[in-house]
Amino acid sequence: MSNINELIQHNGKIKAAADSLHIRRNTLNFRLDALSKSSNQNLLNFKRRILTYMVLWK
């Protein structure tokens, strides 16, 4: 959940979100890829990212 939250906070900028999480960019990409595949959502798309965040937050 924190991965998506940080990505939203940084307007979809992978590098900034990864820096904020204190992880490497590739690690964040790997996590987002896994979440994208399991949810069938493209998390690089703003609307899909917000929708996924709202579903997980609830």
Q: What is the element layout, followed by pairings?
A:
Blueprint: H1 2-9, H2 14-21, H3 25-39, H4 46-57
Helix pairs in contact: 1-2, 1-4, 2-3
Per the CATH scheme, the topology name is: Arc Repressor Mutant, subunit A
The largest pleated sheet is described as: none
Q: State the fourth-level CATH superfamily.
A: PucR C-terminal helix-turn-helix domain
What oligomeric state do these chains adopt? single chain
- What is the averaged pLDDT score? 87
By DSSP (H or I, 4+ residues per run), the number of helices equals: 4
Per CATH, the class reads: Mainly Alpha
Q: How far apart are the first and last residues' alpha carbons, in Å?
A: 11 Å
Explain how this protein is built.
With 58 residues, this protein is mostly helical. It has one domain (2-57): PucR C-terminal helix-turn-helix domain (Arc Repressor Mutant, subunit A, Orthogonal Bundle), CATH 1.10.10.2840. It is 74% helix and 0% strand. The protein contains four helices and no strands. The longest helix is centred in the middle third of the chain and has 15 residues, at 25-39. It is globular, with a radius of gyration of 10 Å. The N and C termini lie close together (11 Å). 12% of the residues are buried. The model has no long low-confidence stretch (mean pLDDT 87).
